[in-house]
Amino acid sequence: MLMRKVPGFVPASSWGLRLPQKFLFLLFLSGLVTLCFGALFLLPHSSRLKRLFLAPRTKQPGLEVVPDVAGHPPVQEQEPPPNPAPAAPAAGEDDPSNRANQLRRNGWPRRTRPTRPREEATAARGNSIAALRPRERSVPFSFDFNAFQSRLHHPVLGTRPDESKEHQSRVHAQKEKIKEMMQFAWQSYKHYAMGKNELRPLTKDGYEGNMFGGLSGVTIIDSLDTLYLMELKEEFQEAKAWVEESFHLNVSGEASLFEVNIRYIGGLLSAFYLTGEEVFRIKAIKLGQKLLPAFNTPTGIPKGVVNFKSGSNGSWGWATAGSSSILAEFGSLHLEFLHLTELSGDQVFAEKVRNIRKVLQKIDKPFGLYPNFLSPVSGNWVQHHVSVGGLGDSFYEYLIKSWLMSAKTDMEAKNMYYEALEAIETYLLNVSPGGLTYIAEWRGGILDHKMGHLACFSGGMIALGAEDAKEEKRAHYRELAAQITKTCHESYARSDTKLGPEAFWFNSGREAVATQLSESYYILRPEVVESYMYLWRQTHNPIYREWGWEVVMPSFPQALEKYCRTEGGFSGIQDVYSSIPSHDNKQQSFFLAETLKYLYLLFSEDDVLSQEDWVFNTEAHPLPVNHSDSSGRARGRH
Ligand code: DMJ
Could you give the dihedral angle defined by the CA atoms of residues 523, 527, 529 and 531, in that order, rounded to the nearest 10 degrees? Predict the structure, then answer.
């Protein structure tokens, strides 16, 4: 059909549009498309959309952190952490005077001075500060180290004994042996792995692991105070030089809040309190600041993983499918964070951990027990699994130590500790048919009759807290501490190597032994000798020194010296019931921080790192008690 041209008439398109209309429509459409793309890329919080539209979901390798040392199960693949939500304001956050009062009430009065210029603070102490990178130097606050030292009741390393007599004593030889082991562990690490996180003694190299967000040298930081304590001066200087020159904080990986806190921050704080070297104080504070994004949750209960680059946080995939924070992790920050506030003048650290307490105080506790999994979003328990071993352990430890570190003024911590202990005794404590006392694990009312190696610290903890319990409970707690420690000793004594398994059971006629190979390994853990040390200091019963020596090398060499010492350093073993050692090729940093330190202290006088002046964090780093009196009695060497 012929279409007649009519003037002024524009043929209609198939949609019935004329040309100008079509043009306008296309203009509108292209504007819309541009707007949508702009929104996709520019609007905040668009990462989920981007992921959804632009790429298939990929694995986040960095989030697969395996905190094997804390006895946690292996980590599953993680969801990327959600965008940080604002932290709930801590009590009195908006009112500074309120804040100071709260701190005082919690037994931690501020002894801070007005902010001084950086140069002055720098001049105040040594040359170490010069080695810091410019960005790491800016902590505008100083701490009066001399005043702190004068408040100690004992010289840090004790009163020097009469050397002529001391040298002949057996105890002196035992101490020297442990010192030699430390020297060997340090030299091996230095030789094969200096600067790496830990040593692999069989392959004679180092490895970084994936718990520390790209931070290096955890063995060095963990060793500083042990080297200082043992007066290994040259080695201490090597470690310090590394911290000054090579310990960089500008890293950008994903880290475990708990592990960085107990090992790095704890190690640096102790090194500062022992030496007064500014480099340790400043690096501890800077690192503390890097951990703060973990607390950006609706409740202020921190998540377990912090991303140093983006400042986002996340939970462990294995912790109830990524929905929980772990009691032992968020419950083991209090000691270090109070000291970060003390040394920085910045209240933020203390406020974060006070808020954790507040949440825990408010929440209902099943039968007075604290389950191991808590949602940082809702502030509710996620699962009713209770344990004094892995996942729960150092939460209880930090309650009694907060009380002690506050010079016995933090009543809240004291009450929480004794109430928790009472509930543990009622629901978890058991005695085996063979008469061994143990603390079982509780799953919503059902008991697993097993104790982990990690739970063996509890003998020492209960001994440490016995003195401040109600009068009528003191003797009972002392006895309980002794019984639990005896059980843990049995778990060592019943193995071929005289070293204890990772977990041991009390069922089907078996007592204090592992029931499968997967629980039979020993990774140089400290908890059993830690308890020997506390029990020795409380009772002076020689059995604890005997048991401690059995771990090193009893009459015929066994245990650490025979089974764990290799040409390239100390190694864990796969099976404590086999006298042909199969090594795991790891010299854990806590072996130098804790196991060797507690052994050394077991054979030292009580005034060496005296319990009157110091508490040990859960990685055995000594932190000072907050003596508020200025009438220090410390004399002699420091
Ligand atoms: C250490 O890192 C700490 O003692 C922590 O509290 C638990 N586990 C290891 C040692 O076994």
Answer: -170
On whether the CB atoms of residues 405 and 339 are closer than 8 A, the answer is: no
> In terms of C-beta density within 10 A (0-12 exposed, 13-18 middle, 19 or more buried), how is residue 338 classed?
buried
Instruction: Indicate if the pLDDT at residue 37 is higher than 90.
Output: no
Q: Which residue type, as a one-letter code, is found at position 297?
A: T
Q: Report d(CA 392, CA 388) in Å as an integer.
A: 5
- The token pair at 223 is 């060793």
| Long-range contacts formed by 472-478: CB under 8 A, 24+ apart | 477/421, 478/538, 478/539
Quick one: which of 225, 343, 354, 242 has its CA closest to 288? Answer: 343
Q: How far is CA 248 from CA 271, 284, 425, in A?
A: 17, 12, 45
> Hey, whose CA ends up nearest to atom 10 of ligand 1?
525
Q: Mean pLDDT score of the chain, rounded to an integer?
A: 83
pTM summary value: 0.81
Q: Which of 136, 278, 342, 502 is catalytic?
A: 502
pLDDT of residue 163: 73
Contact between 552 and 181 (Cβ < 8 Å): yes
Spatial separation of the C-alpha atoms in residues 454 and 420, rounded to whole Å: 18
Q: Give the position, in ligand 1's atom list, of the atom nearest the Cα of 523.
A: 11
Instruction: Mark whether 502 is an active-site residue.
Output: yes
**Atom number in ligand 1 closest to CA 263:** 2
